Amino acid sequence: MAEARVLEAGEVTAVSKAWTHVRANLRRSAGQRLFDQWLKPVVLVESSTIDSIRLGLPSAFLTQWVRNHYAERLLLEFKAVLPSVTAVSIDTISDEPKRVVTAEDRPAIPLAPPAERPVFDPRFTFDRFVTDASNRVAFNAARSLAGAGDPVFSPLYLHSGTGQGKTHLMHAIGHEFLAANPMATAIYMPAERFMFEFVQALRAKDTHAFKTRLRGVDLLMIDDLQFIGGKDSTQEEFFHTVNEFMNSGKRLVIAADRAPQALEGFETRLAGRLGSGLVADIKVPELDLRRAIVQRKLEDMPRVAMPAEVIELLAARITTNVRELEGALNRLVAYAQLNSEAITIDFATVTLGEVLRSVQRRITIDEIQRAVSAHFAVKQIDLISERRAVAIARPRQIAMYLAKRLTTRSLPEIGRKFGNRDHSTVIHAVRRIEDLRGKDSEIDSAVRTLMRQLESA
Question: Is residue 107 within 8 Å of residue 5, measured between CB atoms?
């Protein structure tokens, strides 16, 4: 094999940009789960010529799968960007040092085996994670676990619905831990990959190598644990892996879509072991957090001008999933740039029409009234009555406030739903509750609880 050389700066830039484009296409066409499991570990490896692309993977198993399923597709993708490309080779690189072509114009640097020094997503760092009360415990716990010294707790178990930031926090932990401990090793993998590699090791009668590799690292992170529900042999191996990390005082992070005791198809002893560390949930983001996330993303797009009303549209209409919120923002920006159009509320409504319709759950004023009456133990009919006692008037104002926040009804329509009240009464209620939320923690807590309940129903 010819001795590898460091590509010239211009070549590095061209190949690196082509690889970024190819990865983006693969992510879109394959879907996030398949991409994360099989294609994300692929790295671009230095070659002696720009016409022959070299890709590497950390294991022979992954290499063979990508060769069988994506070799031709990868060649076509590269040729579409760099017509001079004539070949794409896919090799296992964990057994020999290679040089990776970097995205920047700088000399390539040696790469340790990817299974032990994973390449964490540069977008997912702690300083890019927007926090509020819904995710602050999980954020602080993640940062604590990534810090120097012996971990105060392990495992850290993160749970939430899809797209709420679990994977972001796991990558952030990896970034910070490896930056603080240059000689440390780490593994991040989805639970499905844990299962496939374990089954492959069983078939090859080489489980010792599998166990040694995983249990020998300083930080192990397993994502989407719920996918090994009902897989008894995999759970048995995972149980012993958890015990090994806990007994040795090493860092273990696990993420799933529900709390340990709520996992379906899991042994009681494993669920109990997972719950013995720190369990932190991430709740559905409220409007203020969604708005802050959009604004934080826009800070990375300095040339994008987005009116406040468009930011509000995104934050108000895409309510349950941060990933979908970010996807809608990226789509809006991309369409505007491709069409050389300014981002206006009309442009956003047309561009995101299907997205907004698919994610919107129409909350009705009747639902709001039922939820408020149940929360405050008052009769629903009292909310539309003339009664002015504080025990009735305050829940009524909260219901009006929620109707304005969570529905598309006009002020006169909301007023009519509350005993034919004038729209000015609704305005007063909305302003009053906004003021009280900043002063009265009980009112603020009640509003937050009701919003989560209604938006996630």
Answer: no
382's CB contacts (< 8 A; 6+ apart) are 373, 392, 396
Average pLDDT, the chain: 84
Whether the full predicted model's pTM is greater than 0.70, yes or no, is no
pLDDT at 2: 37
The CATH classification number of 126-281 equals: 3.40.50.300
- State which fold the 365-456 domain adopts: Chromosomal Replication Initiator Protein Dnaa; Chain: A; (1.10.1750)
Using CA atoms, how far residue 340 sits from 239, 290, 299, 334, 379, in Å, is 54, 27, 20, 10, 54
pLDDT tens readout for residues 352-392: 887 776 555 578 899 999 999 999 999 999 999 988 888 89
- For residues 239 and 246, give the distance between their C-alpha atoms in angstroms, rounded to a whole number: 11
Give the range among 58-67, 235-244, 294-303, 433-442 with minimum mean pLDDT. 58-67
Q: Which two tokens stand for residue 105?
A: 């114009």
CATH 1.10.1750.10 in the chain, residue ranges: 365-456
